[in-house]
From TrEMBL:
Organism this protein belongs to: Thermococcus chitonophagus
Pathway: Amino-acid biosynthesis; L-threonine biosynthesis; L-threonine from L-aspartate: step 4/5
Tagged with keyword Translocase: no
Record protein name field: Homoserine kinase
Main enzyme class: transferase
Domain of life: Archaea
Pfam family, one: GHMP_kinases_N
GO cellular-component term (any): cytoplasm
Keyword ATP-binding among record annotations: yes
Subcellular location: Cytoplasm
Binding site for ATP: R81, P82, K83, S84, G85, L86, G87, S88, S89, G90, A91
Known EC number: 2.7.1.39
Amino acid sequence: MKVYAPATIANFGPGFDVFGMAIEKPGDEVVVKECDNFRIEVIGHKVPADGSNVAVVAAKALFKLLGEEGGVYMKLKKGIRPKSGLGSSGASSLAGAVAAAKVLGVEDDELIIRAALEGERAASGSPHGDNVIPSYYGGFTIIESISPLRVHRIDVELKVAVVLPEVEVPTSEARKVLPEKVPLKDAVKNLAMASSLVLALREEDIETIGRLLDDRLALPYRKKLMPWFDKVREAALNAGAYGVTVSGSGPAMFAVGENLREVAKAMGEAFEEMGIRAEYWVTKTGR
Ligand code: HSE
């Protein structure tokens, strides 16, 4: 049995911890077999190949939630670089939970997601769902609530340019810089942007989607962890992007527009000019 969990763009501008979109590539793949305990082998990007791997944490969590004995053997092809801002831990956690669900014959979305969130909690210290949930459902997802699970999905098809620099921003660190309270005017602005973005996504109006890729809840506080942000943003806009912002808690950034190959290249070059190697590509909404 095989499980594929795509990378995701969490927050997607103004939707902190609420919006997320699956992207076609990269992704994590797991080949799964029933086993009498929990074992994992890893190929691809370097992550632990023991019980601390979030895929194992999530798989175990599902067994525990159901009071089941036994385990799974997983061969994880780790396609998403850890600490990239592309939902690497979310995808592996989800793949582990789905692998366990396949072995146990479970199809309950809420239980699978609850188990996957245990992997996310182990990785980042917070069980936020905006990577795990779009990776599970595909498309663009809006989390109304995690418990009970209430998710709204927009079946948009959107192309994005993605740039991933060779630096790491751990989500756990990026969450520590967030304030407990935000100014009311910033909350209002985010509400305006987020609600407008939902309508723009339904209409696939990429110019408006681009204009709304901003955030006043997390980005202003996180920018100090990403001193390159303004330069890369400017390069993308100069290359014709309609909008650009950070993916998840970074360091990856993404942009929307028409000429995305040029936009992706411009973002990659902006990183290179600052002495940071970066890979870039164009992809679209994942299923
Ligand atoms: N919503 C999360 C955050 C996503 O911004 O901390 C992390 O990938």
